[in-house]
UniProtKB/TrEMBL annotation, chains A, D:
GO terms for molecular function: nucleotide binding. InterPro entries: Beta-grasp_dom_sf, MoaD_arc-typ, MOCS2A, Mopterin_synth/thiamin_S_b, ThiS/MoaD-like. NCBIfam families: moaD_arch (TIGR01687). It comes from the Bacteria. This is Molybdopterin synthase sulfur carrier subunit. Pathway: Cofactor biosynthesis; molybdopterin biosynthesis. Keywords: Molybdenum cofactor biosynthesis, Nucleotide-binding. It holds the Pfam family ThiS. It comes from Spirosoma fluviale. The lineage of its organism: Bacteria, Pseudomonadati, Bacteroidota, Cytophagia, Cytophagales. GO terms for biological process: Mo-molybdopterin cofactor biosynthetic process. The keyword Cytoplasm does not apply.
From TrEMBL, chains B, C:
The lineage of its organism: Bacteria, Pseudomonadati, Bacteroidota, Cytophagia, Cytophagales. This is Molybdopterin synthase catalytic subunit. The keyword Nucleus does not apply. Pathway: Cofactor biosynthesis; molybdopterin biosynthesis. SUPFAM superfamilies: Molybdopterin synthase subunit MoaE (SSF54690). It comes from the Bacteria.
């Protein structure tokens, strides 16, 4: 996976980037933590958000989890349902 | 029964679903759109969800609740899209043999939904808008 | 709104009554006739009330709850007469700005009703009958 | 009040006596406690009930309260609403 990964955006992250998905360059064997670092570099506007989590295939992911090219990846800003 | 819907929440249908011959207690919680947040007048709310994950996270919460309390039936329905003041944003209903469990399970479900389910609410004021909980 | 009635309890009407522009949370508790008590099959329940005092005791409970929590609107409706399995015997509904108070006030009201309000329930089994709580 | 007082009955007390109100002899100046003693003497069948309270004019009454002829008096067996 020496290319890029598509990341779904919601809520404030979608508003700040103006996109509902972004493509982030990522090396093979990269982890969720690596992805977050890349996202923060590419989109400094997201720095003001209280917390950003990553979901992989619809599950909250730990920062050590390694990503593969088939994963559905989403950026999860602080939730506010209910 | 778990649902994420753009349609108005049908409370009588939820009640019919919850009733059973063993149910002695039903607790319903309704989250409703208020006309203000910290005294700032709200015009409407816009709810957005990561649908697939919102449903699976709500299912996890229901599964934990079912392990913890003797739940006969439950229903969790969350709206998405644009909601006006007075609209029901979320309905939690829990039917149990006795009342303590109905209250406790219902409260657990709504408290946990607000912590873990990927649904986002934007408050649209008369003079601006803001994604709830997003900023420090 | 407090009522003691021989008619079926109208949940949608209670909901309409509770809604207001300031209400962010509504908790409803429904006490429903179950098909068994300690595994003895129940055929029906017969509720009897000392009407005037039942209403004034329910009003006292509501007054205390209103002093303790920021209640926007409440409704307490208790059935009397013969109830079949699945019938709603009591409905408590509380609307507040935020959810903690709705749950707490609703629970306080139903718990206290069961302790102080002069309403009596006879369980009619397939093989006998018994006034609930009457014997040691 | 050297005559008798009418007492409303509900639930199990109505079933055991077969009446929805009974007349209990009571001296002038008698208290709620005196009335309960009289009731227990006249209706021994009520002894098996877990507790019996008296309401006067729709309010729970203490045993010291003195009764008058105009009071609406009710016998309150253990409640079981809800």
């Amino acid at each position: 996976m020496n290319s890029s990964i598509s990341v779904l955006l919601f809520g404030i992250t979608r508003d700040l980037t103006g996109q509902s998905a972004v493509s982030v360059p990522l090396a093979e064997g990269a982890s969720v933590g690596d992805l977050l670092t890349q996202i923060h570099q590419k989109y400094p506007a997201l720095a003001g958000i209280r917390s950003l989590l990553i979901a992989v295939n619809g599950e909250y992911a730990e920062s050590e989890q390694v990503l593969t090219r088939h994963d559905e990846v989403a950026l999860i800003p602080p939730v506010s349902g209910g | 029964m778990i649902a994420l819907t753009s349609d108005p929440i049908d409370v009588p249908a939820a009640l019919r679903f919850l009733q059973s011959e063993q149910a002695g207690a039903i607790d319903f919680f309704l989250g409703v759109v208020r006309d203000n947040t910290q005294e700032r007048p709200v015009d409407r709310l816009e709810y957005e969800a990561y649908d697939r994950m919102a449903i699976s996270e709500m299912q996890k919460i229901a599964d934990v609740a079912q392990q913890q309390w003797p739940i006969l039936r439950y229903t969790i329905i969350h709206r998405k899209g644009t909601l006006q003041i007075g609209d029901i944003a979320v309905l939690i209903g829990v039917a149990t043999p006795h009342r303590a469990a109905a209250f406790e399970a219902c409260r657990y479900i709504i408290d946990t939904i607000k912590q873990t389910v990927p649904i986002w609410k934007k408050e649209v004021f008369t003079d601006g808008e803001s994604w709830v909980n997003a900023h420090p």
